[in-house]
Amino acid sequence: MTSRRTFIGGLTSAVVTACTCEDNRVPLSSKREAPYLRRVDAHLHVSRGGLRRAIEIMRQEGIAWGVNLSGGALGHGLERQREPTKAHNAPLVTFTSPHWPSCGERDFGARSAEALSKAVALGARGLKIHKTLGLHAKGPDGELLAVDAKELDPLFETAGDLRVPVWIHTGDPLAFWDDPGPSNERHAELAAHPDWSLFGRHVPSFDELYAQLERRVARHPKTQFVSVHFGNCAEQPQRVAASLRRLPNLWLDTAARIPELGRHPPLELRQFFTEFRDRVLFGSDLGVGAAPSPLFLGSSGPDAPTAE
Prior knowledge:
Helix content: 25-40%
Strand content: 15-25%
Oligomer: single chain
Largest sheet: 5 strands, mixed
Number of domains: 1
Strand order of the largest sheet: 5-4-3-11-12
CATH class: Alpha Beta
Structural class: alpha/beta
CATH topology: TIM Barrel
């Protein structure tokens, strides 16, 4: 598998190996299409029941290919997700995930690595690491598993050996650690999703988690990492830029952080995108389930979102 370049939102971006697919014949139907333009959404969550709906949305919006990060774990949903995707010749590549309920087992890392190998043989094209790692998953000793826990090394080394990329979500927006009251800049979001608040909980700080993420990426130079949600630190683009300069195997996507980017000086962000134009992937964080279940973009509010 080789990298493909695509033009997204006026920026030239390298779409890493996950989006090199077997069939490139899916037509673009958007009025905005052009011969050189093949949009790729590198961050989707599509359920089995939402597959047809997702395909229709993609065609309406001129999305040629998408990365479905909700493939599930081997033996726990992945096989059921892959079958309809293949049957519909869907313009999606499917990722797999570790089976986090098993994280308390002492051989969790080695078994996850073995499961990844089998999942790739079945057609999975990448590995998705959920924010569960670092915030919720506990090891055999009952303590939280760090993002850079050494017992997970076999999993990330195997990803590198198999040449499949790792999309990794670490931590959450900085405001989630603050009092979720009316003065919180994400009050509306946290009011709709109160369980997302990390205020007063026994979890690592944002800075601790970010340091764990950087150590994880540095430890596996053969493995490609996509740090989702604008490098998991959209509030501090210069911090993300420093990570990208230091870690050549690191990419990022824009999923669910477009509003966050709007707070920064335009010239500063223009310079960021210019410097890292081959390492920023477009991602929407669009979630698609079977109708009439609501769509979502990153999160939803108290009212069900419309298609618009």
